[in-house]
Amino acid sequence: MVKVKRLKTKEMNSSDVNFSLLKSQTNVPVEFVWPEKDMTPSEGDLDLPIVDLSGFLKGDEAETQLAAKAVRDACMAHGTFLVVNHGFKSGLAEKALETSSLFFGLSKDEKLKACRIPGNISGYTAGHSQRFSSNLPWNETLTLAFKKGPPQVLEEFLTSRLGNDRREIGQVFQEFCDAMNGLTLELMELLGISMGLKDRTYYRRFFEDGNAIFRCNYYPPCKQPDKTLGVGPHNDPTAITVLLQDDVVGLEVFAGGRWQIVRPRPGALVVNVGDTFMALSNGNYKSCYHRAVVNMEKVRRSLVFFSCPREDKLIVPPPELVQGEDASRKYPDFTWAQLQRFTQSGYRVDNTTLHNFSSWLTSHYPNN
Question: Domain named Fe2OG dioxygenase: which ranges (predicted)?
Fold first, then answer.
């Protein structure tokens, strides 16, 4: 049985971390220093396919097949690709980034009104200090649970915490997440096509009643960027992640045995495969192993939309992916609720999360 590592936590919260002061310090506090193995410098830029979605969204079959092939090649290699012409309303992405800057520009006391409460996914954090006591990420985050349709949960959460004067923040994020949700369903269909499924809508239908997690990341400047990370090396436990970057370099993907830079591209969104979709593909598509580095002089911002299945739905790959003499199930049946509970109970996500979770699940539920 695999022994699951759980990191030591302590009684601490986001009010203990003030990046307005930390970013001007010459030395990074020891809590934010990462091991040398995680700080290996990147080597060059990752050559990612830029998938033009315009033909696919218009129903052009020839263009769809070209897009599907590019997606398949990328997902089998490292689990990440770029998309352009994704159908977002003009100016929406820029407005959402500006709105995130508005929130993180509030006073510390104002942001703490939206502080994450233990046991709740939504809220503000600084350095994830409420969960861990070492290897803290050099970032501030605002995380919001997203559910389709009324009530407008993002807007309601922020208004309830920050008051009606900040209602516009929630409204902009709600509109942005509605667009992201529509895009992820289109991407799920394209992923099904890329895998050659007889029912090309299999994954789209699987996620139609799902939910999502929306996160705003704010990475302050750091005097010692070679000592700390904005986000440590990890695979997302969710299904797919759609990421909007600003124009500051920071995202890096481990591919070809080395860390490589994913440079921001105007108008493009980054799509990463997560652990849940890797299980849904029966291991055919790789979960993307990535991290975020910080900058000595510049603030970096990103907006992230994590697509999740309905909490009680069994994660089971399509039957055709487990047929044939050489085919077998790579992972046991599980639900998103089980995996989320595992990752939120002291386990820090990394590149072995799905393996360790599967071993834990098999040992605790042998008849699963």
Answer: 209-309
Beta carbons within 8 Å of 208's beta carbon, 6+ residues apart: 185
- Return d(Cα 355, Cα 77) in angstroms, integer: 19
**Any idea what DSSP says for residue 253?**
E
**Choice among 215, 300, 301, 341 that is catalytic:** 300
- Here the tokens at position 209 are 């009643």
Written as six digits, the tokens of 83 are 């998309």
Instruction: Give the 3-state secondary structure of residue 151.
Output: coil
- 205 belongs to the catalytic site: no
Per-residue model confidence as pLDDT tens digits over 278-309? 999 999 999 999 999 999 999 999 999 999 99
Question: Is the confidence at residue 208, as pLDDT, over 90?
Answer: yes
**pLDDT tens column, 58-94:** 999 999 999 999 999 999 999 999 999 999 999 999 9
111's tokens = 């942001």
Q: Count of CB atoms within 10 A of residue 87's CB?
A: 12
Q: Where are the alpha helices (DSSP H) in 40-166?
A: 54-58, 61-77, 92-104, 108-112, 153-162
Q: In what order do the strands lie in the sheet with 289-292?
A: 231-235, 289-292, 251-255, 258-261
Q: How far apart are CA 300 and CA 4, in angstroms?
A: 33
277: Cα within 13 Å, side-chain hemisphere: 32
Tokens of residue 296, six digits: 């000595």
Which residues are CB-contacts of 147 (< 8 A; sequence separation ≥ 6)? Answer: 153, 211
d(Cα 94, Cα 172) in Å, to the nearest integer?
Answer: 11
